[in-house]
UniProtKB/TrEMBL annotation:
It comes from the Eukaryota. This is Probable transcriptional regulatory protein Nther_1800. Belongs to the TACO1 family. Residues 82-237 form the TACO1/YebC-like second and third domain. Residues 5-76 form the TACO1/YebC-like N-terminal domain. It comes from Durusdinium trenchii.
């Protein structure tokens, strides 16, 4: 799992997940719209909406855009009929890949996702082909300089976290879905601002990749994430630290 975690952290810091701000705002707006439609427009009563708005703010999304997305989700500013779809497939060396999408046209998105897999040496699979390999978890990345490791470990575990470990220049905290908010609240109470706080899918096992296959998988993941319909991508690969560092320098 280390390689996957390193990739997530590198992607976050270098902004690789969304190279174009317009595309990023589009994804964030869709997440807010769907959350508001499902649970209402009050973030105090709608946890998913609160997460979506917090993420938008951390990415400097304008307040007007956020408010407009909430209104759309509540049916106050036009109809936004987004459908949630998970695409599953394989990359180089049999790496399992999951893509969560919000789309207004599932046929168009499916075609685009299929083509992206094929261009980068992978293939789109049937529903359920790889989903069983992943577990839903809460994931936080906390800057290393924000707190001592022992203090963070104690704080996080007391709040219900499953694990805390150092990952490069950040601490990674994992929790269950049920304790995610408790951990988030504990960090906030102690004045700790995580670089990211999300519900993600964590692979139960990983595929070790060399530089060649690692390069192919990273390019596939980047290409998938450039699609505005794709909200998140995860994969079950592991790349050694030195190889990952070399690949990161190629960007």
């Amino acid at each position: 799992m280390a390689g996957h975690s390193h990739w997530a952290n590198i992607a976050h810091k270098k902004g690789r997940i969304d190279k174009k701000r317009g595309a990023l705002f589009g994804k964030l707006s869709r997440a807010i719209i769907v959350a508001a439609r499902r649970g209402g427009g009050d973030p105090a009563m709608n946890l998913a909406l609160r997460y979506a708005i917090d993420k938008a703010r951390k990415n400097s999304m304008p307040k007007d855009n956020i408010e407009r997305a909430v209104k759309k989700g509540c049916g106050e500013a036009g109809d936004a009929d987004f459908e949630e779809i998970t695409y599953e497939g394989y990359g180089a060396a049999g790496v399992a890949i999951l893509c969560d999408a919000l789309t207004e046209n599932r046929n168009r998105t499916a075609g685009e996702v299929r083509k992206t897999f094929e261009v980068h040496g992978g293939n789109l699979g049937a529903t359920g082909c790889v989903g069983w390999m992943f577990e839903r978890k809460g994931q936080f990345f906390v800057p290393r300089e924000a707190i001592d490791e022992e203090q963070l470990f104690e704080l996080a575990l007391e709040a219900g976290a499953d694990d805390v470990k150092l990952d490069g220049e950040s601490y990674e905290i994992l929790s269950s879905v049920e304790t995610f908010q408790q951990v988030a609240d504990a960090l906030q109470e102690h004045g700790i601002e995580p670089d990211s706080a999300e519900l993600v899918r964590i692979p139960e096992n990983t595929v070790d990749l060399d530089a060649n296959d690692g390069r192919k998988v990273l390019k596939l993941l980047d290409a998938l994430e450039e699609n505005e319909d794709i909200q998140s991508v995860t994969a079950n690969f592991n790349i050694a630290d030195d190889v990952m560092a070399a690949l990161a320098e190629e960007e």
